[in-house]
Amino acid sequence: MVRSKPKRVPTRKILDMLKEMYPDAHCELNYRNPFELLIATILSAQSTDRQVNKVTARLFQAYPTPNDFLKLTQEELAEHIRGLGLFRNKSKHILETCRLLVDCFDGQVPNKREQLEKLPGVGRKTANVVLSNAFQIPAFAVDTHVHRVANRLALADSKTPLETEKQLMKRVPRSEWSDTHHRIIWHGRRVCSARNPKCHQCALLANCWYGKAHS
């Protein structure tokens, strides 16, 4: 019988254990500046960071700025990123975003959420990734890994990424948002996978509602 999700969990203990488990957790997309991170994050939708890094290693070398990207047609850019999911839509969105960056922001990536979310292909999660990693502005990006793991640990009790983000922002100290985001992602990729999570190997098992309920 599956136990109901608890209302109270040892949040501080879980956060400290995640820090101990993943002391070097960081963004696994390769980038040198806010523009490269923005493009890499757009490309990462329905693709792995490893796949994106293979593509961007060549792409950013040849086209390092928004103006450089605008020398490409949509079809030409699509060929450069063909190995990634949704590559045709991403090509369209990236070129539209580069046009807006050039026309409205002097070729620079804005550091305001409202401005970022107006860029084609940029949603709340992508904006949060850019804010926290490129500009060191506290933000809690919630992707599928964060949504899944946070709910399994009962750090959140929600159906949507946005609600998970709101609950995590209340539960986790603001100064730890970015680091905790990375640690949860690393845990989701390495241990707490969507299918067949390695609960028996997990140091968090004793404090994990999902693990105890399903073991």
Description of the structure:
By secondary structure, the chain is mainly α. The chain has two domains: 91 residues, Endonuclease Iii, domain 2 (Orthogonal Bundle); 101 residues, Orthogonal Bundle (Endonuclease III, domain 1). 56% of the residues lie in helices and 0% in strands. Helix 9 packs across helix 11. The radius of gyration is 19 Å and the shape is elongated.
CA radius of gyration is 19 Å
Contiguous runs where pLDDT drops below 50 for at least 5 residues: none
Task: Give the averaged pLDDT, no decimals.
Answer: 95
Count of individual beta strands = 0
Instruction: Supply the CATH architecture of the largest domain.
Output: Orthogonal Bundle
Secondary-structure element series = HHHHHHHHHHHH
Question: In which range does the helix fraction lie?
Answer: 55-70%
| Portion in beta strands | under 5%
- Label the overall shape: elongated
**CATH fold name of the largest domain, please?**
Endonuclease III, domain 1
* Largest sheet features: none
CATH class of the largest domain, named Mainly Alpha
Structural class: mainly alpha
Query: Domains counted in the coordinates: how many?
Result: 2
User: What is the count of DSSP helices, taking H or I runs of 4+ residues?
Assistant: 12
Alpha carbon gap, first and last residue = 11 Å
Query: What is the H level of CATH, i.e. the homologous superfamily of the largest domain?
Result: Hypothetical protein, domain 2
